[in-house]
Amino acid sequence: MVATAARADYSQRLDALWDFDKPAESETRFRAEASQHPPGSREASEATTQLARSLGLQRRFVDADRALDAVKPALARLPARVRVRYLLERGRRDNSSGHRERAYAWFEQALEASTGDTLPDTDYYRVDTLHMLAIAAPRERQRAWNLQALAVADASSDPRTRGWRGSLLNNVGWTMHERGDDAAALAYWQEALTAVEAQHDIVRIRIARWTVARGLRAVGRLDDAEAIQRQLADEFEAAHVPDGYVFEELAEIAAARGDRAAAQSRAAKALALLSQDADFRANETARLARLTELAKPAPH
Length: 300
Hints:
With 300 residues, the chain is an all-alpha fold. It contains 18 helices and no strands. 77% of the residues lie in helices and 0% in strands.
C-alpha cells in the first residue's frame, strides 16, 4: 500500500516542477527528475513526457519527438496515466508546430486512454485532455468540448481539478468571440476572472483582467477597456516587465478612437516586445502585420 500511495502521488509531485514561463529551467528539472529513476520505469517515463513538453514550448520539436520516442516502448506495461500523458504531449507538440488535425487525433486517443486511468487525479488529466481537444477541434466543436471539460471539473471533488474552471471559461469566451458573439464572450471572461481571483494567482488574474478588457473593447466600451489596460501597464512597469500584449490593446483602443499618434506610439512598443516572442511570430502573423502597420509613422 505504501508503494501504491507513493506512485499515485507522483503525477502531482511531477507537475509541481513546472514553471511554464521558463521552459528551459523546467527542462533542466525534468531531466534531473527522470535521471533519478530506472530507465523505462513509470517515474522516468512520465517525467520524460514533461521533458518533451518543455522542449516543445521552446519550439525544439525534433528534440521533443526524440524524448517521446524514448517513452513509447515501455507504454504497454506502464499505468494508463503514462500513456495519457504521452499522447497529450504528442498532441501538444503537433498543435504547437501547426499540425492541428494530427494533434486532434492524438488528443482523441488520450481521451480514450484516460478511461483506463485508475490512479488518483484522473479527473485532472481527463479535463486536460478535453481542453486540448477543444483547442485543436474545428470551430463548431470547440464549445462542446470545453463545456464537457467544465462539467468534469465542476463535478470533481479535487481542488486542483476544479482549478481548471478559469481556463475553461476563458476558452469558451474565445470561441464565442470567434463566432462573433462578443457580449457572450465578455460574460464568460468576466466569470473566468471571478474564478481565477478565488485562486489568488496574480499572473493568471492579470491575464484574466487583460481578457476582460479585450472583451470590453469588442463591445465598444473603450473607456472601461483602457482603464484596465492602463492599470495593467502600470503594474508591469512597476515590476520592470513591460507587457507587449497590453501595449497592443492600448494601440487598438487608440486606433478605435481614431487617435493615430497614440496608436502609433503604443503599437511601436508592442512590436518591440512581441516581435521577440517566437510563438507570437509563428502563430500570430496577422496580429504582427497589424502592429507593423499601426507602428508606421503617420504620413505628413
